[in-house]
Amino acid sequence: MLYVYICIKKLCQVVETQARDSRQSKSVSMVRSLPKKILIICLCIICIGFPEFIVSGSCLSDTEMIFSEDTDSNIIKTARGDQGNVGDTNSDSTERDRQIEKYTCWFVIIILIFSLLTAVLAFSKLLAQRKANRVLAHQRNILKKTLMDLQISEEKYKSLFSKANDAIFLMDHDTFRDCNDKTLEMFECRREEIIGQPPYRFSPHQQPDGKSSKEKALHLIEQCYQGKPQRFYWVHTKLDGTPFDAEISLNMILLEGNSFIQAIVRDISERVRAEREMVKAREKAEKATESKTFFLAKMSHEIRTMLGGITSSTQLLMNTKVSKHQSELLDIIDTSADNLLSIVNEILDFSKIEAGKIDLEDNPFNIRKTLEDIVNAYLPKARDKEISLYLSIHHNIPEYVSGDELRLKQILANLLSNAVKFTDKGSVKLDVVITAEDPKCFNIAFNIIDTGIGIPENKIKDMFAEYSQSDVSISRRFGGTGLGLNIVYKLVNLMEGSIEAKSKLNKGSQFIIQISFKKTDFTGDKKSDTKSVSIKSSKKYKVLLAEDNVINQKITMINLKQLGHDVDLAENGTEAWEKYREKEYDIILMDIQMPEMDGIEVTHLIRNYEAKNPSKQRTRIVALTANILGQNADYCLLEGMDAYISKPFRVEDIIEKLDPDDDSGQ
Length: 666
Description:
This protein has helices at residues 2-21, 25-69, 75-163, 181-187, 213-225, 269-318, 324-354, 367-384, 405-421, 472-478, 484-494, 550-562, 573-582, 599-612, 633-638, 651-658; strands at residues 167-172, 175-179, 230-237, 243-255, 258-267, 363-366, 388-393, 400-403, 427-437, 441-450, 498-504, 508-518, 542-546, 566-570, 587-591, 620-625, 643-646. By secondary structure, it is α/β, with parallel strands linked by helices. α12 (550-562) links the parallel β13 (542-546) and β14 (566-570). α6 runs antiparallel to α7 (324-354) and α9 runs antiparallel to α11 (484-494). It starts with a helix and ends in an 8-residue tail after the last helix. The model is unreliable at 23-32, 49-83, 470-479, 526-535 and 662-666 (pLDDT under 50).
């Protein structure tokens, strides 16, 4: 029994040792508990069954010993009692043999059951161990692949960090902790000369905005630590102190549970240099354009001043008694002056557009009457060339719209003038229709169609360019500056419209302009669209003429005196200011450009003087200007003047502006 117990215990120890090696907790628990339970059951069975067997064996031995000892003395008794005890002894022996067989069978059965259970458990353990080994191998492969991926990722990011084209820093608050190779190249230093240094070590004392590099750097880093990424311009210095322009991005990152600032520095010295050169080039070009514009405006001013003398003198002569031949000559002079004025106006308009000095107006006007006036202005020329000139206005075109009437006239007049000029037979037509409408605006299309000489197909795309004409011979035959269509194109774009040209050589051309005009409730009832101007004024005024040009002085004074007005002359701004304080005037005709003091300065002095002396009557001031850059009606009215006359002017313009009740300002 002892041997069996020892074997069973040894077997249990082996099983427990194997169970401890298992990584499956559930299997280990089962394997550990079962052998112990089996051992306990076996021991209980043996302990219950074998005591009886042991007792029976002991009794038999004692009887045999007694019988042996008393053989000599009791031989007779024993012999006598043999017959009675033989049957009992045989019976006891048989019973004992059965008991032994019974317990032996049970023991063998238990041993077999235990062996079977041990084999089953060993097989289960083997299966579990194989499964655990497969799981372990799979996990080992996953771990190996993960480690490999991590290694590849680490190498990749290490390569990106070290081989990046931008300098990359890692900062712990205000200290450099690491940097890549590009940093060493950019700052021309060794790694140990950067690591441990503050970020403002490689910066000048002050940045271009005047702020301290140290204070600004620490502030930006603190902002980044608060979760606000930063991107800014910075001036860095190399180790030798050479400055360079940089663009810096700051971001907060986490490494091994610690917060760091990643700074990416990009050298933008070449870009900044190119931008500075571009700015200089643009400033130079703007100065050149400004000089050209001022030159053209100045020349236009001088030419218009001379034209004023020509047109005014021609008008004065026409009002005198002249012969038929002299009248024809005066007509030629007047027509030539008008044509020259048209060219000068084109040059001036081109200069103003180029300089961005044109401001669009937004006033209600009678568009139907405007279109009729434009067409009527070119009817005489069309009749002279024996061609037809038509105006077709669609029935749904409103009478009044709001927009810039003057610029619309300028656009249509230029296109109609070209159409009549380049058409020798056939017709010219202005067709006006509404192409779109919304609650606030009308989109109106103006189609100018002619049967003239047309434009070659390869020239259409360049026809809106500056100084462009389809053929040099056109300039020789018809004249012109080549600025007209360019001015039209720029004005249409300025009015946020569109223009399209279609043409066939020797068959005619078509220009389609689309411009939006605002709707208006204005009906024109309060003010008549037409104004009759009498050549004679019923009221006599005391007039101060402030004009430095001798020709304009003579012409204007002759016209005013013929109208019966009292006129004083001031040849410069200072003299005009002195005469104003010496004498009361109803009206001052103020030239804008005068020596010593210009007309705007004199106007400011007069208005300030009137404000300080309320008892003095307000004097009406009318601007006389050649309409150079910035000197339009709005400009003059904002500066304190009451009305505006553009040079060269006719006598009707002066008469119209002399009336103080006229508040048009035009």
